[in-house]
Specification:
The complex is a heterodimer of chains A (395) and B (399). Chain A is an alpha/beta fold and 395 residues long. Helices cover 43% and strands 14% of the residues of chain A. Chain A contains 16 helices and 13 strands. In chain A, strand 11, helix 12 and strand 12 form a beta-alpha-beta unit. In chain B, strands 3-2-1-4-5-6-7 form a seven-stranded parallel sheet, sandwiched between helices. Chain B has helices at 11-26, 40-44, 59-67, 80-112, 124-133, 151-164, 239-250, 266-269, 284-287, 300-309, 320-332, 344-361, 363-378, 382-395, and strands spanning 2-6, 30-35, 50-52, 116-119, 137-140, 176-179, 194-195, 219-223, 256-261, 277-280, 293-296, 313-316, 335-338. With 399 residues, chain B is α/β, with parallel strands linked by helices. The chains are: A alpha/beta (395), B alpha/beta (399).
């Protein structure tokens, strides 16, 4: 059958869809990955057949303007109940407006394309509502491909006045839900947030668009000390700003730790690094699925790719989230006992160091729980099971 | 488990392996592709991960140096001794690559400890590394079994390499050979290889929107693959002649002529006749299913791609492996062949159009192509082979 994949122009959302799209191809299905032109080079780099559809959109600008301005989670503890409720409502509306703006840019082009190509199913990243609108228009199943904790399940289009003008302008009916007919979910089940959806759990398959593996990158360190990987992901500096990259409190804590420190960065982030002692290893564009299995701890900001990869390989995590979605990712993964997260207001250098040291203790509960989480993830169904579920839905 | 794929740095050989590598990853296994630095870009553009072994860049110039001059040979009445020397020259190219990959490859594999090695037939280093580690090796064909008939040459040329690693003999055939082609396209006398369904992958690309919209007119595609233009023989690259011939034959008729070419073939092709639509770096698997016929040079990607799409094909073949593909296609009834060795460009210009006309007017070609397509579709998909590979690796675990 024909399966149309779509995502907005953000690699965090796109990468987890790549193994699923390839699984559909190797099962014999005809696959297209359609997105606005900003994402097309990433699609081509994944080996998938790319189609440009929908208008590009300044997602970072819109996010910073609409969402960063109402986040201010740091001060929630000082807010009274009424003020907090008001703040939540403002955030929810801002997020809704953000997704609607993305949908407004993507949907007309995607609709044109899909009406020509006639897919039998549409797979969409949970925030690319264009996917569900197009599936609805064609009368085919909409499959939501999650990239992490099911944050979007809570963002229901209750503000109908936000989405409705877009639907009216395109002559589309309001979909029953933006959650689709099936949710393909790599998040370990007991850390996932509950939502009223039909869920197909799958074992996470890492994909991170870093094709060159140094031959010794999988080998453990030789120092005999525990090895700690520090990574700030590849999107935070673009989303929140370069000053948010590896803040001084985090670096100070890591450098004071009795451990071998490896800092994983994308090649383009090299200029963001401060001067570092020579014993610190800089792993430039080394895929995390190769590097993390050599580590005893990963310290990171709650990116879903990093969190899943660490969980898959049984590596405990210390998460220092900055944004609402990463806070949620941090909370879900750490609820398993496989790590600790610190809110920004708690994350002074000493607290970070103490927690890292606690996790690193030989036979700490965090190490044990991380291994248990990895075992659980290995027991989940595989990609072909997700493809079969899509086939059944479309039949 | 960990699966190490080994291929020479030749993108078309690698492209056939990429879907099986994805099937393994989707099933939860770890995969690395080992090849020369010349394959880095192609591996990157498949979503896989490469471990660079040895110094070799693109194989095409190496190959062109030895094979380019052979395009003028008439293979049908070649003296056996001369033919043997020709074959040895070709095998020598690949033996040299294996030799130059071996040290890095074995060092990496000793550390990474794969449970299984998958290699394509020209990558003898794959068989070597499996033997050194004592793990099973699987040979994955990309077309006709080109190496089996010259195994004695491999043995002779590779023995010094085996000895370098303390081995006297290495099983080049592997414990299992996977053949992605339809069984009925196999040559007589081919061993009973395990069939796997060819999943078309020609490298990625952006698909123009009009290609995925319903076509108003039937289409005829002309393509010359991606390798022939890099063989140092522009006089034997006949895309321009084939396009001109098809366009002249079909002028004023309903079918629309498409030409698919690589970015580096723009000059070789030159300006196309009026009404011919040009596609640059668009994957064949997206074009072929929209076509009523295809003309190509007999490369394995084009041949198997046409089979997978159920499209009748005209194969204009030159080198021995291309001629072998052409003969099998014609015998299947799903297409015709043109062997222009003597006539060269003039023969392509004169012969291509009329043969395409036959493909379009005689419905038997379409019926045979549909049968081949159905046969291929019934072969196990790559993900269905994964369990076999798991069992193979399991069985090999020392007690």
């Amino acid at each position: 059958m024909r399966i149309l994949f779509t995502s907005w122009a953000w690699t965090t959302h796109f990468y987890p869809m790549v193994p699923l799209a390839w699984a559909a191809r190797v099962a014999g299905h005809d696959v297209r990955f359609a997105a606005p032109s900003d994402l097309v080079p990433s699609i081509v780099a994944s080996g998938l057949p790319a189609v440009t559809a929908g208008e590009d959109f300044d997602i970072v600008g819109d996010f910073q303007e609409r969402i960063v301005t109402v986040m201010d989670y740091e001060n929630d503890h000082a807010r009274g109940e009424a003020e907090l409720a008001e703040r939540h409502a403002a955030r929810s509306r801002a997020v809704m407006e953000h997704y609607t703006a993305i949908a407004a840019a993507m949907t007309p082009g995607l609709l044109d394309y899909a009406r020509d190509w006639r897919p039998d199913a549409v797979v969409y990243d949970p925030l690319a509502w264009a996917g569900v609108l197009v599936a609805d228009d064609l009368g085919v199943p909409a499959v939501r491909s999650l990239f992490g904790p099911d944050l979007s399940a809570a963002i229901r289009p209750e503000h109908t006045d936000v989405l409705d003008p877009l639907l009216e302008s395109l002559g589309l009916d309001r979909p029953e839900s933006t959650l689709g007919d099936l949710t393909v979910d790599p998040c370990p089940p007991y850390v996932q947030i509950d939502a009223p959806v039909r869920r197909q759990h799958i074992r996470f398959v890492p994909y991170n668009a870093l094709p060159v593996v140094p031959p010794a990158a999988h080998e453990p360190g030789r120092s005999g000390r525990p090895r700690v990987c520090l990574t700030w992901g590849t999107t935070t500096d673009r989303m929140v700003g370069e000053t948010a990259f590896l803040p001084p409190n985090v670096l100070e804590a890591m450098l004071s730790l009795d451990a071998e420190l490896v800092i994983a960065i994308a090649a383009r982030q090299e200029h963001l690094l401060p001067d570092l002692p020579p014993e610190v290893t800089i792993a430039k564009s080394v895929p995390l699925d190769v590097l993390l299995p050599t580590c005893d701890l990963v310290v990171q900001r709650g990116g879903s790719g990093t969190s899943h990869t660490a969980a898959l390989y049984g590596v405990p995590q210390l998460i220092l989230p900055l944004m609402p979605d990463t806070l949620l990712t941090a909370r879900t993964f750490c609820s398993s006992g496989a790590g600790v997260f610190l809110r920004p207001d708690e994350a002074d250098a000493e607290t970070i160091r103490e927690n890292a040291a606690r996790i690193l203790e030989p036979d700490s509960s965090f190490r044990r729980q991380a291994r248990a989480l990895a075992d659980d993830m290995e027991r989940l169904p595989r990609m072909p099971d997700a493809v079969r579920a899509m086939e059944e839905l479309a039949a | 488990m960990r699966v190490l794929f080994v291929t020479v740095p030749w993108p078309t050989n690698f492209h056939v392996l990429a879907p099986l590598a994805w099937a393994l990853r989707g099933a939860g296994h770890e995969v690395r592709i080992a090849s020369g630095p010349g394959l880095t870009d192609a591996v990157g553009r498949s979503g896989h991960q490469i471990v660079v072994c040895g110094p070799d860049g693109d194989v095409a110039p190496l190959f062109a140096e030895r094979v380019g001059p052979m395009y003028d040979i008439d293979w049908s009445d070649r003296e056996p001794a001369a033919a043997e020397a020709d074959a040895e020259a070709v095998v020598g190219v690949f033996a040299g690559i294996a030799d130059r990959m071996a040290d890095d490859l074995v060092a990496f594999a000793r550390s990474w400890r794969p449970d299984l090695v998958v290699h394509e037939p020209t990558a003898a280093a794959g068989a070597l590394v499996a033997a050194v580690l004592g793990v099973p090796s699987v040979r994955h064909l990309w077309g006709p079994d080109v190496t089996a008939p010259v195994e004695h040459l491999h043995r002779r040329l590779l023995t010094p390499l085996w000895e370098r690693f303390g081995l006297t003999e290495v099983d080049l055939g592997g414990e299992l050979t996977l053949d992605p082609g339809p069984v009925s396209l196999r040559e007589a006398g081919t061993p009973d290889h395990r069939p796997v369904r060819y999943v078309p992958f020609n490298g990625p690309g952006e698909i123009p929107r009009w290609l995925d919209a319903p076509a108003a007119r039937p289409r005829v595609l002309v393509t010359w693959g991606t390798a022939m233009s890099r063989m140092g023989r522009p006089d034997a690259f006949w895309l321009r002649e084939a396009v001109a011939s098809v366009a002249a034959e079909l002028a004023g008729d309903d079918p629309e002529v498409l030409v698919a070419r690589a970015a580096d073939q723009a000059e070789l092709l030159g300006p196309v006749p009026d009404g011919v639509r040009e596609l640059e770096q668009v994957p064949l698997h997206a074009i072929l299913p929209t076509c009523a016929a295809v003309v190509h040079h007999g490369g394995s990607g084009s041949t198997l791609g046409a089979v997978a799409a159920g499209v009748p094909q005209l194969v204009v073949a030159l080198s021995p492996d291309q001629v072998r593909n052409a003969l099998r296609v014609e015998a299947s009834g799903a297409g015709l062949m043109l062997l222009p060795r003597d006539g060269g460009a003039a023969a392509v210009r004169a012969g291509t159009g009329p043969l395409v006309r036959r493909l379009l007017t005689d419905p038997s070609f379409g019926a045979a192509a549909a049968r081949l397509r159905a046969e291929l579709a019934a072969q196990p998909a790559p993900w269905e082979i994964v369990a076999d590979l798991e069992r193979l690796a399991q069985r090999a675990v020392p007690a």
